[in-house]
Amino acid sequence: MPAALFRLVLTFAVLALMHAALAADPKRIALLIGNDDYDMDGHFTSPTKPHFVPDLKQPCHDIDLIAKPLKSAGFEVLERCNLKQADLDTTLAALKPEFKSLPGHSAVFVYYAGHGMARHGYTFTVPVMFQWDQTVLDKDTADNQIKFFKHNANDVRALFDALPSSDDIGVVVALDSCRDDPLTESVGYNEAVSVQVPPNTVVQYATTEGETTPDGGNADKRYANILAAELARGGDMGAILGRVQARMWKLYRANQITTYADTKPGPAFMALAPLPLKVDYKPPSAVTVTPKPSTGTLPKLYEVHAETKEDLDKRNVRLDLLWCAGNGEETRFAQARNIAEQLNEQRAELGLGRIQLKQLTEEKNNEAGYRVHRNIMRYDGFYANGKPIPIEANMERKAVIRIASLFPDAGFLPKPGIGVNGAPTLNYISAFVCLNEEPMPARQ
Length: 444
Known about the structure:
Elements: H1 3-23, E1 28-34, H2 59-72, E2 76-81, H3 85-100, E3 107-113, E4 116-119, E5 122-125, H4 134-138, H5 142-152, E6 154-155, H6 156-162, E7 170-176, E8 201-205, H7 223-233, H8 237-253, E9 262-265, H9 267-271, H10 285-288, E10 301-305, H11 309-314, E11 317-324, H12 329-344, H13 347-350, E12 352-360, H14 362-367, E13 376-380, H15 395-406, E14 413-417, E15 428-433
Parallel strand pairs: 1-2, 1-3, 3-7, 7-8, 11-12, 11-15, 13-14
Antiparallel strand pairs: 4-5, 5-6, 8-9, 10-12, 13-15
Helix pairs in contact: 2-7, 3-6, 7-8, 8-15
C-alpha cells in the first residue's frame, strides 16, 4: 500500500475511533462500601475488644438499602462489605482504569458507611481489623501518628484519585461515617471527613463536622434511609442530594435528630447539565433543547421587598433569587417568584431583609464565571483571609439551609464561596433557579 494511502486510511481509522468514543453511551456505576465487623469475628461485639474500634450494626445493611434504587435506575452496582485496608486499595486500583475511561455524561456514585477519622489535616476511612494503642500513640509525635494512620487506614485522597476527573462526568460521594467515636479527641475523632472536593464532584456528609450519627435508630430519621428514599424518587443527582439535606435539616430543626447532612459541590459539578439518576431518563424538552434568547417580556429585576432601616439595623440577610434565562425561562421565573413571595411572608422569622428577583442571562451565565445549570444557594463560607467561617458562627449558611429546607423538592444545593470577585459580602446570600426538571411545589 502506498505511504500516502496508508496515512489516509490511518487518519480515517483514528477519526472513526474518536467518533465512536464521543458517541459512546454514558454509563452509571456505583461503588458501595460498608464496614461494620471491625474485629472480623462474624458478629456484633460489644463491648469492643482491646485495641479495636467499635463494631457497628448498620453499614453492610445500608449498602443493600442504597443498592436497590441504584440498580432500578440502571446502575452497575459494586457492593463491598467489611474491607481491610489492602482490600480497598486493591478495589480502587482495579476500578481506576474503567473510571478514567468513562464516556462523557456518565455518572459515578460512591457510598461509604463505617468509621472515619481526621488527623492533622489528613482524612481517613477506617478499615476492618484496624488496631491501635491509644496510650502509645498519644505520646508519639504528630509525624509518627500520621505515618501510623497512613499505614493502617485508608486515605480518602486515594478514593478521589481513582474517580473520574473529567468535567463532563458527574461524581457523587456520600460519606455516612459519623456513627460512633472510635478514637478519643486527643488523637483523632470520628467527625465527618472533610476533604477538598474535586471540581466535578459533589460530596455529602451524613453529619456536620465534630458530630456523630447513631448507628441505628428510627429508620425514617436515618441518613441511609432518607438517601435511599430520595434515590428511589429519581431525578437530577444534585437535586437528590439537595432533597436529602433539606429533609435532614427539617428533622434537626424539629429536635428529632442531633445533626444534619452537609453538602459540598465542586464548581464543575454545578456547571454540568442536569445529571439524571437513570441514564435513559427523559427530562422535559425545556431542559434538552437548544436554549433560546430571552423574549424580553419578563422583568430583569423584580423587587419583592425593599430594604428598610429596620432591616439595616437588625443586619437582616439580603437575598437575591436569580432565575436562568433561556428556553423554559417562564417556568423558572414563576418558580423563583413563588419562592420569593412565600419567603417574604416569613422574613422576620428567617431574618431576611431585601428580597429581589434578578435575571441571569445566558451570556452572563456562560461567560462571566457563573456557569450554573441547577438549583443552588450560595453563601460566604470563608473569611477574606481564606480561612473557613465556623459552622456555628455562619449566619448566612444557616439562612441558606433553612430556606432550602422550606422547599425540599426544589433540590437546592448549598454552595460556600467568598462573596463577589473574592471579596466577602456581608449579610448577603443568593439562590439560583436554573433546573427546570419538574414543577417546584409550594413551601412545606
